[in-house]
Amino acid sequence: MTGSPGRTATPRRYLMCEPRYFAVEYSINPWMNPDEPVSAELAVKEWTELADSFRRLGHRVETIRPVAGLPDMVFAANSGTVVHGRVLGARFRARQRTAEADHYRRWFLDHGYQDVVMPTAINEAEGDFAWTGEFLLAGTGFRTDPAAHGEAQEVLGVPVVSLQLMDPRYYHLDTALFVLQEASPTRPAHVAYYPEAFSPGSRRVLARLFPTAVIANEADAECLGLNGVSDGRNVVIPMEATHLAANLIAEGYEPTFVDIAELRKSGGGPKCCTLEIRD
């Protein structure tokens, strides 16, 4: 896959879970309101279009069977971090999601992964971990414990950079930052992020690590525009993130818009639904 000058798409492998039992029955983040009607049928439609978008872009999509009684299981990114074939599972903070972790653990074991480690610290996986190709960015503040950062470094064998989240609306790192282009021997990693979601110190760290980052504004963040998925050229983002899209185009990326209005009622978007498997 090749495309815009300076931007090269790389085929990816994703694990996803159909939101057959999607519902908002409890509130574990500011986006969730159990009194607001939701439609599992509409959520499935949005999810199907997201998965089809990945396939059209040349990516491989695998699925895990949804389980009744686990309405948030659709948010696959929260259930595992895979780097160089090593799998670090999840340990959820909210009791309502605890059972999801073992279903994903078994999926990896059933698909031939021998090196699967379940964490001892609270760890919400790619919700709070973002692989840059060189090191793992790791968020904390609302869900994942700081101790999980050190555990991830030991299990995955990669350097970890800790970042402090400050705004409860952006309770996971993947609601405030995503990797646009992984590092390669010829160029550094490139990211997009919303500075106001981070502590002052973490903002300084991000500015130092990524001086040419795409900076999102409040409107981008409020539609979960930073909950995007990039293959190095094509960037899948919510349809409302028009300011972010314009900045991405200026940087040589090609946005693909998806509707996540129903899934967003649970605080999730494209990335939340997508666990990347990096063998």
UniProtKB/TrEMBL annotation:
**The protein, known as:** N-dimethylarginine dimethylaminohydrolase
Q: Which UniProt keyword terms apply here?
A: Hydrolase
Q: What is the lineage of its organism?
A: Bacteria, Bacillati, Actinomycetota, Actinomycetes, Pseudonocardiales
Single Gene Ontology MF annotation: hydrolase activity
- What top-level branch of life does the organism fall under? Bacteria
The protein's organism comes out as: Actinophytocola oryzae
